[in-house]
Specification:
This protein has nine helices and seven strands; from the N terminus they run E-E-H-E-E-H-E-H-H-H-H-E-E-H-H-H. By secondary structure, it is of the alpha/beta class. The chain has three domains: 1-102, Conserved hypothetical protein from pyrococcus furiosus pfu- 392566-001, ParB domain (Alpha-Beta Complex); 103-181, no CATH class; 184-226, no CATH class. A hairpin with a 2-residue loop joins strand 3 and strand 4. Helix 1 (26-37) packs across helix 2 (60-68) and helix 4 runs antiparallel to helix 5.
């Protein structure tokens, strides 16, 4: 059951502990925001009220798009059948897995870890995150590492070589700074293409600061390799 209600933005809790998307995509939210400004209509977001607070169930990018447009309120469907945080998490997965931006591999791994803590069997989890059961164990094992305290950390594709290699506590914050969900080879090839074809914006001071830092780090890496 659900009823529609106008909520203030600050009433909507987007705590990632209860929501399957680890991060929202700025580009997707911006596209939604521009479409809204042009008159496009979007469905209301969906929330559930637990312990007296409204928690997001579906619609993170719509919510962020409205914020970009300076809106102070949001139209929300209040799901009255969801009364626990475990149920909230499961329902949010169900909503997000069938529409919107597909879950990233990192998000699927994070969901699998959460569901394992909730005592779900691997067969059930594989169905929920849409990974064939015969590939499930390898899928998870090759996409997580642990920090020095034993906390499991889902890996982005860019640093997946760190799977099963213990990392420092700071690793998770560093990984969050990596925006691209692609391999290091692709990232490096793109940079090489810019260099080989004289496509770097050398008049951009911010670009050149980064190039100087890259040069410094490459020299440091070379010295380390030659030891």
């Amino acid at each position: 059951m659900a009823k529609e209600q106008l909520l203030a933005m600050k009433q909507v809790n987007t705590d990632e502990k209860y929501y399957p998307r680890m991060k929202w995509g700025w580009q997707t939210a911006y596209q939604y925001a521009m479409a809204m400004k042009a008159g496009a209509e979007f469905p209301a977001i969906e929330v559930a009220k637990i312990d007296g607070k409204y928690h997001l169930l579906d619609g993170r990018h719509r919510l962020e798009a409205l914020k970009m447009n300076g809106e102070k309120h949001v139209q929300a469907m209040i799901n009255t059948s969801v009364k626990t945080f475990d149920k909230l998490f499961l329902e949010a997965i169900n909503r997000n897995v069938v529409h919107g931006r597909p879950f990233s591999v990192q998000e699927k791994t994070n969901i699998a870890l959460r569901l394992q803590k909730m005592k779900f069997k691997n067969l059930e989890i594989s169905r929920i995150i849409q990974v064939p059961i015969e590939k499930f164990e390898k899928f998870v094992a090759t996409r997580i590492t642990t920090d020095v305290k034993g906390k499991p950390i889902p890996l982005k594709k860019t640093v997946r070589h760190k799977a099963s290699m213990p990392v420092e506590e700071s690793f998770e914050d560093v990984q969050d700074e990596i925006h691209a969900g692609t391999s290091q080879i692709v990232l490096l090839d793109d940079f090489i293409t810019l260099l080989e074809n004289n496509l770097l914006d050398t008049k951009n001071k911010d670009v050149m600061k980064r190039v100087e830092k890259i040069i410094s780090l490459v020299f440091a890496l070379e010295r380390e390799i030659r030891k």
